Model the fold of this input.
Amino acid sequence: MNLQTNRVKEAIEKNMKLFENIQKELHNIAELSFEEYKTQKYIREKLTEWGIENFPIAKTGVIGIINNSEECVAVRADMDGILVEGKPRHCCGHDFHMAIVLGIAKTLVDIGYKECVKFIFQPAEEGPGGAKKVIEEGGLKNPNVKQLIGFHVWPNLDVGTIEVSSGAIMASVDDFEIEFIGKGGHAAMPELTKNPIYPAIDFIQSANNFFSAYSKKSSPFHISFSSIDSGETFNVIANTCKIKGTVRTFDTEIQNFIYENIKKLAKFSAEKYDSQVNINYYFQYPPLINNPQIAEEFLKSAKSLLSSENVRKAEISFTAEDFAFYCKEVPSFYFRLGIKENGKGMNPLHSPSFDASPNSIFYGIYLIVNYLLAI
Done:
């Protein structure tokens, strides 16, 4: 451990009780997407107390800046909780994310860091995608973000261990609603109706067959049909049948290929059964793709701090993250931070029993501060 690394370690350890208390206090004021007013106030008060310039963004978000300049590196933390057992709760670890990024800001100030860093506290990661609003309101400008760092606490990964890789790491999200319109009537006289369930079933079977064959020739993707709704009782054929589903991919070309063929297959099934079809397709999040160069630089720094066996390749996940919007705008990378220790950090994200070791806060700060010093 060199003198600089040791200095960072001592600076963090000196304030660990503070950082752990910050996590606990943020945990106790969990708020839903774009309702993070108490959280916003809390973060701004801490940044102001430490002499860090800050201002609101994206309704309930916060941006903090040290050593304001023309360009900067930025670090992002998401702020919102989720509704679990009837109330907002931090069951996805965003309280830990905020505590870590506040800890990074405090540590950089304490060690006299001279370069410009922006701290993006982003609302609404769980809901409508607050990253888009941050970008739309100029959150990556003034100073211009030349590189952006993101992370997520990760269950069943030991404290002091991370997962990171270059390229795609999390999937895109597209949702669709396809409504087949037939002609309703009495179920005892089907010859007088156009049952919309038949083209719906035909479409699902056709899509499964078509995309199953294609999936063997491409990068991984999922198409899931999650809802089919038509009629309310035994003896009435409804006018309509609506299908809902989701698409997950790691490649924008495949994403567009699936979109075009879902439309074609739905129209073909409707024509086959002399029905009409309405197609609503929603491009939600793009795939999260790490910048290869930055990921390699971070890997090198992390291995020097944690040793190679504690820096693991991140397997792709079909879950999604609105950090992906930042990746499309500026060179970015995103890693997973281990939280498992002494019986904590073993329950899944979004579980009402989710928890994490407080020692993970140290490693989040330690890794990112040392990386900033190395670049």
